[in-house]
Request: fold
Amino acid sequence: MIESYEKAGKIVANIREEAIKLIKDDLLILDLVEFVESEIIKAGAGIAFPCNVSLNEIAAHYTSPANDENKIATGDLVKLDLGAHIDGYIADSAITIMAPGDDLEDKFDEDTLDTNYKLIEASGAALEAAISTVRDGVGVGQIGKEVEIAIDKFGFKPIANLTGHGLDQWNLHSGISIPSVNDKSSTKLKEGDVIAIEPFVTDGVGWVGDAKGTYIYKFMQDKPFRMVQTKKVLDEIKTNYPNFHFSARWLTEKFNPNRLNSSLRQLSQAMAIYPYPALKEKANSWVAQKEHTVIVEDDGCKIITK
Reply:
């Protein structure tokens, strides 16, 4: 089990570093997403969830739809979030990069650039503070408290309604939540727990809501449907993606995109699948994120995605 987690972690770390090198002005988000996902498969792992590439005020849950024409621009805060699994044992990691470009200083004034660089720095400092707190018996509220303190030193806010999460075999969210604020939770970590810690930082109000567009889904339960197309889509989902989140883009190889979208709406309304809309900071302020997966030990933790 531990070896599988560590192998998945090494794959994620290597692909994350290679993907960072691709981030630049005018890059199609779709190209970055497809690079990450294809490299995970090439490495002999499975995709734990669709690669997320969320820009600026979009905090999470954006992955390219089919034929996505959205591009990264110079100065964008690019949050790259990827996950891989070996035999169901998952590693999850994220990083924020400011997209480079020759016109960076022409597009942004000095104060804005300084704020954005500090958002990235704060997300890293918050993650370090959290990791240094993790050990057997520690309360998750204490981790959140340390994250909040670290972010406050930069004059920013954590996003309170986005949390890290426990990981288990075939289960991306195992029930443990790792807050970025002191929520006074009585839940305690124990040796052997595997958790993904991912503080989100903003200079906005520190809260996210749904943005336009849903690109990620998860199978929930089998249900009967009269529409033949919808039944076929559900069969495809439960056969190929019974455990992990999936992208609508992955289904367009077999289904017409327009008819597929109609089926996904029906399946979501019936709670056969669960939709995960993109998430946006409430004040439209920009967001930075950093994430590692760690295994809890007696007196600390082991980072497997470093």
Remarks:
- Residues 110-133 form the longest helix (24 residues).
